[in-house]
Design brief:
Elements: H1 6-29, H2 33-43, H3 56-60, H4 76-92, H5 108-118, H6 130-137, H7 141-157, H8 164-174, H9 177-192
Helix pairs in contact: 1-2, 1-4, 1-8, 2-4, 4-7, 4-8, 5-9, 6-7, 8-9
């Protein structure tokens, strides 16, 4: 059997998260009870994948086999999906517009740049927001989650959307020292507005 590459797992994860969030988002914006209920449960679900039975269906139903953990600890894919879901639940809260939007223009670095522009009266041009800078040097999942939550709250306050499928893939790669710097490079390019042909935009045979 051919081993599944890290790139393939990331792409599968991005597709799963984007599809699942799109479904929740549509239900929420259509005013269906399952949409608001799902977001509320995700916001209460804590930091650990699977810790809240109320979100098991969202997190694990349909999760591709290659992302499912094989030990008592969550897999990198499960951690990335859980964090992306909970961040989105915070981002979308009380918003009448979709906060999950797909596309390179909605990558995390570009979103933070829009945040900086929206707050240009209080932030020097070109200077990295302190939380974004701290996120760039974070080395543990706890640190990554902490700074991402702070930034998502700021994006929410300015109604700036984000591509959560892409974000899930970035969180996945951040957990691997061999690919973490590539994520930081993508964020830097996005923040600076530099065109970038990142792996998320490539198709594999």
């Amino acid at each position: 059997m051919t081993a599944i590459s890290t790139t393939s797992r990331r792409q599968v994860l991005e597709q799963f998260v984007s599809s699942r969030i799109s479904r929740i988002q549509k239900a929420y914006l259509d005013g269906r009870p399952e949409g608001s209920a799902g977001l509320a449960e995700l916001r209460k679900s804590g930091d650990t994948p699977g810790a809240s039975p109320a979100t098991w269906a969202i997190e694990f139903e349909g999760l591709p086999d290659e992302l499912v953990g094989k030990t008592d600890e969550p897999s990198p894919g499960e951690r990335a999906a859980h964090l992306a879901f909970t961040l989105y639940a915070t981002h979308q809260q009380s918003q009448g517009q979709p906060m999950h939007r797909t596309g390179r223009e909605h990558n995390f670095g570009a979103a933070v740049a829009r945040l900086q522009a929206a707050r240009s009266d209080t932030a020097p041009t070109g200077q990295l927001p302190s939380r974004f800078s701290a996120l760039g040097t974070a080395s543990t999942m706890d640190e990554i989650a902490h700074y991402m939550r702070q930034l998502i709250n700021l994006l929410r306050s300015e109604e700036i959307p984000l591509d959560y499928g892409r974000l899930a893939g970035q969180i996945y790669r951040l957990q691997n020292p061999a690919t973490a710097d590539a994520v930081r490079l993508e964020w830097g390019r996005g923040f600076a507005g530099t065109p970038s042909n990142q792996p998320s935009d490539k198709k594999e045979d």
